[in-house]
Design goal:
The complex is a heterotrimer of chains A (about 180), B (about 250) and C (about 350). A six-stranded mixed beta sheet of chain A has the order 2-3-1-4-5-6, with helices on both faces. Chain A has helices at about 15-30, 75-80, 115-120, 125-140, 145-155, 160-175; strands at about 5-10, 30-35, 45-55, 70, 90-95, 110. In chain A, helix 1 (about 15-30) crosses helix 5 and helix 4 runs antiparallel to helix 5. Chain A is an alpha/beta fold and about 180 residues long. Chain B has about 250 residues and is of the alpha/beta class. Chain B has a single domain, classed as Rossmann fold, CATH 3.40.50. Helices cover about 35% and strands about 15% of the residues of chain B. A seven-stranded mixed beta sheet of chain B has the order 2-1-3-4-6-5-7, sandwiched between helices. In chain B, helix 7 (about 180-200) links the parallel strand 5 (about 170-175) and strand 6. The radius of gyration of chain B is 17 Å and the shape is globular. Chain C has two domains: about 5-240, 3-Layer(aba) Sandwich (Rossmann fold), CATH 3.40.50; about 240-355, Rossmann fold (3-Layer(aba) Sandwich). In chain C, strand 4 (about 75), helix 4 (about 80-95) and strand 5 (about 100-105) form a beta-alpha-beta unit. In chain C, helix 3 (about 55-70) packs parallel to helix 4 and helix 11 (about 290-300) crosses helix 12 (about 320-325). In chain C, about 45% of the residues lie in helices and about 20% in strands. Chain C has helices at about 10-20, 35-45, 55-70, 80-95, 120-125, 145-160, 170-175, 200-205, 220-240, 260-275, 290-300, 320-325, 345-355; strands spanning about 5, 25, 50, 75, 100-105, 135-140, 165-170, 175-180, 210, 240-245, 255, 280-285, 285-290, 305-310, 330-335. Classes of the chains: A alpha/beta (about 180), B alpha/beta (about 250), C alpha/beta (about 350). Chains in contact: A-C, B-C. Strand 2 (about 65) of chain B pairs parallel with strand 9 (about 210) of chain C, so a sheet runs across the interface.
Chain lengths: ~180, ~250, ~350
Amino acid sequence: MQKEVMFAGFGGQGILLSAKLLAYAAMKQGLEVAWVPSYGPEMRGGTAYCTVVISDIRIGSPIIKNPTYLVAMNRPSLEKFAPNVKPGGIVVINSSLIPVRSERDDISELLVPANEEAINLGTVRCANIIVLSAFAAKSGMVDTDILRQCVKDNFASKKKVIPLNMKAFDRGMEIAED
Amino acid sequence: MGKTFSKPEALSDAYTHYCPGCTHGIAHRLVAEVIDELGIRGRTVGIAPVGCAVLAYNYFTCDFQEAAHGRAPAMATGIKRVRPDLIAFTYQGDGDLASIGMGEIVHAANRGEKFTTIFINNAVYGMTGGQMAPTTMPGQRTTTSPMGRDVTTTGMPIKMCELLSTLETPGYIERQTLLNPKYIKKAKKAIKRAFEYQIAGKCYSFVELVSICPTNWGKTPLESLKWAEESLLPYYKLGEFKTPEEE
Amino acid sequence: MAKILMKGNEAIGEAAIRAGCLNYFAYPITPQTEVAEYMAKRMPEVNGVFVQGESEVAVGYMIFGAAACGERVMTTSSSPGVSLMSEAISYIAGARCPAVFVNIMRGGPGLGGILPSQGDYFQSTKGGGHGDYRLLVMAPDGVQEIVEMVMMAFPLAEKYRNPVMIVGDGLIGQMMEPVEFPDNLTVKPSNKDAWATNGMDTRGSKEKNIVKSLYLDPEELNNHNLTLKAQYERMKKEEIRFEAYNTDGDYKVLIVSYGTMSRVCKTAIDNMKAKGIETGMIRPKTLFPYPLQAVHDAAAKQSCKAVISIEMSMGQMVEDVERAVLGQKPVSWYGQCGGNVPSPEEVEEQVMALINK
């Protein structure tokens, strides 16, 4: 069974890292993975996006026009990519920065006020981790215990920030379960 | 009485293809003598240019590579980076080095690559038959400047030693000539110093040799020597331009 | 060994190091710059050489100089950069030096774009530079395969004393996939004393070696070209690699596709199979030598009505497909370029149109 998620937002919002952590977790689960970034001039300050494809068999085309899931970190991303999400899919919306909704009735939405929640925890920089864990919990795309460990491993060289990111991860899980 | 004069070991028995009066033979011999004196033939790799000296590998008895036009400094870079223990020298003419290979020579010198360049400047393209070079003198007639070099459209002759000396990277840069025995002795000294800097792993080294091309200048060898002395040497000043010591 | 999640471009660099290549020269160009960035960091850790040349022209000759010394050496670039290196590639092939080139192709002609493309098929398989030379050209379809091909490339380059070119595209360079570096692909460098300019002392010889491509005598040059040709003919016998996908059933249409494009085609083939439509595919892994016989035989199958070459270019490989099919069945082309990668749905449409024709 193949599933795809697109992470999209401004450059600097941690889009590529979130996608990478998800890909790592899937790989650790023994799944086939492809992490496909957008690259080019739009990376600098514009809309960046990155797709992660996971599957239990070898991945054919890694280029996905209609993903199962979308994680939108800013408004242009939601407006641009929400129409492409497969029916029955999930859209995670960073409601701190996005005042609108997908306006689709064939998909489900999860609102995560990621920036506010991150600031409450100490810094806006962990907003992407909150969204990542919320998405993972809501979608079940990867095992959240493995993902949590991947987040921890990622910051192994910056031990100081691990507790903050663990808190962010747990907060995201709570939001998804509410 | 013992033997007082013999061919350097670093030179082969091949018949020369250079024209009568050409100074390439002298330059080859000086390089070969230096290789012998420094005992480096077994670890030396020369790089032949495109130009009259394209067949230089026939005359030397050390390993040789043959470059594309102007690219010898990039090849020497490749050699020295992967085998710093080898001694590499490029032997290049003015069309090769100062025209099509300007990028390669400037950047190799600026990176401070530890190889040696012997630059033969005779103010004309030799092998293709006497076309204008970047070092051709103002008013000098060549097949592509039949009315004499017009500096308003082709610019002034490029002085490579001066140009390379502006680089902040330490290097050894000297210009000498092959016009008479007194000069030739100085030229050999410069060539030897250049190789010594390389052996010591000190810096990039560059020796320009102001040379003659009787065939393409349309002059006899004697006329050529006289013209070079009167026309080239006042513009291409001899001497040491840069040494690694002066930092 | 456990799998590592790696970007294609970084995996290329690591594969070269694992294959015993400690010499890398390059010039930055999108979308392969990460190889240079990776090597700048990694080479000092393994006492290797990293040089950022002043241009792709110069880099081509740094590769030549290093390869002529008998050392394993690699560069990577993208289409416009490979055009600039093509001069050196011709010289290196002419001088019979082993070297590995990787082209992470982007859209052209000219500056084109920076997105994935397969527009350099002609450049890599039919020339690029001047003269009668060929490159052994391999085309991976993902990060794992580019790792394997890079590792295989060094012994192959040495076997034939010829440059090997690996053509990926921007997607393969930028994408991350889990990879492993197979130990059995690390092959010791061959002895090159017979020809390399590695210094007479190094090989304990009194005879000089000359690495050159100049043969002024026509007879000599002709003979030199015959020697080269014999190597290319040997490649055709020994190095053809391809994958046959879903060719057991009674397919009406045969797809020929390589690299990233072939993965899209696989998805389309699987989708059609789920609907009861069989489609076969030959995926060349070597573009030179080309799997002419495999394409020919797959097209010869009774059930096969048509052959289509699907490429991220305006129809380059299709000429080799025609050469393989030899008129037995109609051959057509479908593709897009400029960074547009045809979708599985678009591939299906093309196949269905051929079936319903």
